[in-house]
Amino acid sequence: MQLVLEKRAERSNTIALISPLIAIGLTLVTMSILFAILGKNPISALGVYFIDPLVDSYSLQEIAVKATPLVMIAIGLALCYLANAWNIGAEGQFLIGAVAGSWLAVKTQGTDAGPWVLPAMMLLAAIGGALYALIPAICKVRFGASEILTSLMLVYVADLLLDYLVRGPWRDPKGFNFPTTAEFDPVATVPVLIEGGRLHLGGIIALVVVAAGAVLLGKTIKGFEIRVVGAAPRAARFGGFNSNQLILLTFAISGALAGLAGIIEVAGPVGHLQPGISPGYGFTAIIVAFLGRLNPVGILIAGLFLALTFIGGEQAQIAMKIPLDVTKVFQGILLFYVLACDSLILYRFKLIFISPKVSSGAH
Amino acid sequence: MGLIEAIILAVLAASTPLLLAATGELVTERSGVLNLGVEGMMIVGAACGFGGAWLSGSVIIGALCGIAAGVLMSLVFALMTLGLAVNQVATGLALTILGIGLSGLIGSRFVGEKISLAPHLYIPGLTDIPLIGRILFGEDAFVYLSLALVAGVWFFLYRTRAGLILRAAGDNHASAHALGYPVLRIRMFAVMFGGACAGLAGAYLPLAYTPFFIPGMTAGRGWIALALVVFASWLPGRLVIGAYLFGAVTILQLHAQGWGVGIPSQFMSALPYLATVIVLVLISRARTGGSTAPAALGTVFVPDR
Q: Which of B84, B90, B101 faces A329 most closely, judged by CB atoms?
């Protein structure tokens, strides 16, 4: 018996639409089995994961808060992946953005600086993230070094830099030696949307980013160039598109967005700079980008779904003592199924029972 | 034992997991498959390797568990990229994300436990030779195994027919297929070999390097191994040089921290990662005359029946 792939005459649009749903369905089945192996009731575990967070207002706000960085980073990554530029160091760009923005917050601490501080922090964060992302991009276009490896290596470097800053020069003198900066001043904090709630201005910014991404990809020449360079590099060369320039551009945009997400997280929900500000947003955003089919609106939905798994995972740990790592396993399995189902768009799967002979090629 | 001797011993130990993982990945890439999931396979290998050794009390069983875990992980990758023709870069990332989660899940019950490390070779007389005795005749079995593996891979790739066919599959899958070679099956075995090596490399960490398991203990070594393959221009011999150079950087930065050089420890810890970036740039730049990578590396192959 053998599994054979047969190329479809044209890509199947029906499957393109439902394949993320098939993938989620298969993931839920796999997770049920995993819960059973862990000795938990699968039905109630899935309930805690996916239903409970949706029925109270605090969790709903928390989902939006967690989805904010995921969506912002994933939009940038989608641009890169569409252009066939593999930025997998968004986690590092997120951290550098957080560091760059926090610099201003730390410097203006306790002064009577006005409300210009927060916008300036965001600008610095975006610039910092973009410059950090340009390192692997320049290494790629100038020297041909694999952007996959260099961008990933810089994640570790960013992590160590942040660690140094909050243990060294930026440490809160009144912080009992904890590795953290002092709480940011109110002018350096992202305002919440509803008094006493968790939802903050970052959620709105994420929606603006989604809209901007949709316009860029759908309505502009640059967006068209990005898609052509990725999908048909030869055609792009004939069209005179500069693929190197597009690599630099997509990396810079995605770095800026990741950096912006970083400062919004630090100046918003966290409130100060400390190690561990990201539970792997930069990596989870890769899954979000693929689950959302590299499409801005899809990414918004996928980001909310992945945020749900973070919240559900925390609740499952508290309510059912299910280890937090299950969430990561879940996310990994989900990405596998998403990629496998995407294969159905281009190919038909066939099981045949005799081994195929080399023929003169039926296609 | 002198300081120099101690440093060389430490460098060899730090280099061995890099060499093991990179050797496996080299064979995988030579067959035309880019498996970016080395880090994921390593970390699961570390968790399973420690678990096996802790439960059985045997380092060998631990190593076998690590290998088995790596192979299982690589089979998932093979099913996806070879069976379903999925993008190799994305699948490799998925494998790493899954591996980090799985290792946490498997390893959580072993955190805080301790095992005794793999014994070191001792040959009376030889091991006692001053200076070189401990270095040449006093290593743990994995160090010798990793060097033997490199030699074996070199012999296989350049001196056997099967190795020639494997390289053909990696350079031009359409031609290899037209000649009647089962490209996908060859690639599957190459991916499995890469998984076995990565699993063993991961298991080396808790079995012979530090006697306990901590989540995330591979700390990017899988990614550095991937960079080493590029550094070595896909040649097994150069892999040894590369791995030992990187091991040396790792150990030197640790010692420099100990000597209290006035540089913050975080900057020293960042050195191996920065060195990887710099080396990749230098190597890629030197190669302006054309790439030495297998020509079909990372491309999807769907046989035409």
A: B101
